[in-house]
Amino acid sequence: MNRHRDRRRRRASATTEYSQSPQSLPGDIDPAALFGAALPAQTRRKLDQLARQVEERLALVLTGEIDDPHVSSLTLIGVEPEPGSGNLVVVLALPVGAGGGEAELVMRRLDALRSYLRSEIAGAIHRKRTPNLVFRLVPAPTGGAPEEEVTP
């Protein structure tokens, strides 16, 4: 009977252990404390799958089902899972020539549409909980220049 209990005690811990050598790390800094432990492959795959499903649905909703010209002129760049939470970061590009005032207006309209967008996502995905949406606006992509974030 003790045999089963002993097996459970001998299992490897779920946390990732990093070797610390004095040459690679100054002092006693643990990389897991700074960057967090790596996600298991299945968890990462499921998060990527969820992000793709949400991206597909949002692309359809933003282009065809919303009558607001400021929101429908946005370009969906991508959807990324926010690590360690139930949030998804939706990256949207402003139209060419949009300024800071336009970004503030668009953010207010996106905040007003957040519950509608979540309900559309809930109908498209098969999950127990619908993720929260966090919007990030970037300027319109120009020929190969790196994207910069616009803060309203």
List keywords for this structure.
152 residues; 3-stranded mixed sheet
Treating each run of at least 4 consecutive H or I residues as one helix, how many helices? 5
List low-confidence stretches: 12-22
- The gyration radius over C-alpha positions equals 21 Å
Shape from CA axes? globular
Structural class: alpha+beta
- As laid out across the biggest beta sheet, the strand order is 1-2-3
What order do the SSEs take from the amino end to the carboxyl end, as H and E? HHHHEEHE
Question: How large is the share of residues in beta strands?
Answer: 5-15%
**Biggest β-sheet, characterized?**
3 strands, mixed
Number of E-state strands:
3
Quaternary organisation? single chain
Description:
The protein is an alpha+beta fold and 152 residues long. It is 45% helix and 14% strand. The chain has 5 helices and 3 strands, in the order H-H-H-H-E-E-H-E. The chain has helices spanning 2-10, 31-35, 41-65, 69-72, 100-124, and strands at 75-81, 87-93, 132-138. The protein has a 3-stranded mixed β-sheet with strand order 1-2-3, with helices on one face. A hairpin with a 5-residue loop joins strand 1 (75-81) and strand 2 (87-93). The protein is globular, with a radius of gyration of 21 Å. The model is unreliable at 12-22 (pLDDT under 50).
